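Retro notes, item 3 of 5
We never archived the inputs for the flavin mononucleotide complex last cycle. Fixing that now. Sequence and ligand:
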Amino acid sequence: MEEVLKFLTDNPTFYIATCSPEGPRVRPFGFIMEDNGKLYMTTNNQKDVFKQLQADPRFELSATSADGGTWIRVRGKVVFDTRKEIAEKAFASAPFFVPMYQSPDNPILEFFYIDDGEATFYSFTEEPRTVKL
Ligand SMILES: Cc1cc2nc3c(=O)[nH]c(=O)nc-3n(C[C@H](O)[C@H](O)[C@H](O)COP(=O)(O)O)c2cc1C
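Structure as it came back at the time:
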């Protein structure tokens, strides 16, 4: 988990794919946080990505290193976590939350963690390596 968090923190734009009735959808995400051994992401419940993850919690995301030599794929299911301490921890860890959402109590703000996931590290020079999340 730590090395996945490090990769996604060092390379902070990742692309997360969801399943929708029209087919796969993908978009850039940036926020990642650890709590109690789980990796958390955020969105808001006005977005299609939220509705898609509620209907089908399976996702896959990918990010590359700045030099393009290594990349990661993470897949699993998401579980939404409405505990206020998660929102408070996120606000404390990333400055963009205040201008974007004002308060951890904002009812459109959502957090979810990866459940039953796996991450695979790739490079042009080594065999892929998969770790469980
Ligand atoms: C660099 C970058 C990081 C982003 N990070 C997030 C994020 O962590 N969570 C989020 O909900 N949207 C984030 N966005 C915005 C989403 O990509 C955007 O709202 C997207 O349209 C959501 O997908 P949807 O249209 O399928 O709902 C980010 C955008 C960029 C450019």
